[in-house]
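Lecture notes, part 5. Sequence design as translation. It can be helpful to think of inverse folding as translation between two languages: the language of shapes and the language of residues. The source text, in structure tokens, appears below.
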């Protein structure tokens, strides 16, 4: 068996997120503590580094928006607890921004390897910038991986979270560049009768291009954060 496959986890969308117990900047936690809430679990390469600092600040500023979506942020790196604490305290002293979510001290890399956060071709010790959106039932719904030298777009992570929740709520799919409260894609018809009915509806309402692509307005529309960089940066 390939060493990297053996050592690094290979979690996939649709699978149950591997549970863990961890020491963090707010105390000990386990992933199972968060059942009933959505979780955005993200890793960063190292404390006191420039790109990671901008990300932690941006996640902290957006924390309220994630909370309003019944979602909790959890950060992780292989740095020590004391390094994490010194780093976020330095951020607080210099910016007055308090990091309100836990950052896991994964010193032995156990969680990082379980989730596949370490890419041996890049580094055998540092985590790359992974993001896992885990739903309220503990299922992995989305995975993003960024390289060490490119910071994440927090508005995009928020948009993706809202898209997943809206898709669940409306039994629908999201079109390219979807933003909260914009139309969503209806499931395609499964019978000839429903196909004909769908095309009649499109001709009447102008809500699609053909039976296989039609839209509706989502229910329970939520404009949390309004997908706006300025709103998050000014919070």
């Amino acid at each position: 068996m390939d060493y990297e496959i053996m050592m690094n986890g290979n979690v996939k969308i649709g699978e149950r997120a591997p549970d863990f117990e961890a020491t963090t900047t707010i105390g000990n936690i386990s992933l199972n503590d968060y059942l009933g809430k959505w979780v955005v679990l993200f890793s960063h390469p190292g404390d006191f580094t420039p790109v990671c600092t901008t990300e932690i600040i941006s996640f902290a500023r957006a924390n309220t928006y994630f909370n309003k979506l019944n979602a909790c942020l959890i950060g992780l790196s292989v740095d020590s607890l004391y390094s994490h604490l010194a780093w976020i305290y330095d951020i607080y002293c210099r910016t007055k921004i308090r990091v309100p979510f836990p950052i896991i001290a994964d010193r032995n890399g156990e969680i990082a390897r379980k989730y596949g956060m370490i890419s041996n071709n890049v580094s055998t010790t540092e985590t790359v910038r992974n993001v896992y959106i885990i739903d309220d039932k503990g299922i992995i719904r989305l995975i993003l991986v960024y390289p060490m030298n490119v910071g994440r777009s927090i508005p995009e992570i928020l948009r993706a979270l809202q898209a997943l929740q809206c898709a669940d709520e409306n039994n629908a799919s999201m079109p390219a560049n979807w933003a909260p409260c914009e139309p969503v894609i209806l499931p395609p018809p499964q019978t000839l009768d429903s196909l004909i009915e769908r095309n009649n509806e499109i001709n009447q309402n102008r809500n699609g291009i053909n039976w296989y692509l039609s839209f509706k307005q989502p229910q329970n529309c939520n404009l949390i954060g309004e997908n706006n960089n300025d709103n998050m940066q000014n919070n």
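The translated text above is only one of many valid answers, since several sequences can fold into similar shapes. The helical segments are 3-7, 50-68, 81-95, 110-115, 154-170, 192-205, 229-233.
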